[in-house]
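Our consortium's second objective concerns turning raw sequence data into structural hypotheses that experimental partners can test. To show how far this objective has progressed, the report includes one record in full. It was chosen at random from the queue rather than selected for favorable results. The single chain below, 145 residues long, was entered without modification.
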Amino acid sequence: MLTRRGFLLSLSAGVAAFAGVRYALSSGEGAIVTVLQKRLHYLILDDAGVHAFAKDLAASKMITVGKLRLAAAAGLLNFEPQSMNLLNTMLRQGEEHIVSTYLLSSDFFLRGADVTQKVSYMGFYDPFAYACRNSFARFTLDTDG
């Protein structure tokens, strides 16, 4: 006969095993792709470019891959938070960092931020390596003097 204590122990062991399997099967790159597809659903994204960016961002260690895997395993990347608490604020800030880095790494701003054109990944944007790459700059030639 199953006692209450035995039931609770087996239930907690099952939940821990399920969480462990989800964490083991999750990846930082998959979490980055999920965030980009969720937050930039209105853009036409190059799928190969999104995966290349996810690989580059995970390799850059700008965001801890363990945190991304944990958020993906917990299913926190697939819902839109309705309340503002510390966890939702931290997730939102991380998502905004991923999205802004992707947009700066793509040709989105070079094409005038046109949402009807396909967004292609150009290369990982690192402001310390490419200090002069400013996608908002518009240069003019002074021919008068």
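The partners drew two points from this record. The helical segments are 4-25, 28-39, 47-60, 65-73, 86-105. Strands lie at 44-45, 118-119. Both points have been shared with the crystallography group to help prioritize constructs.
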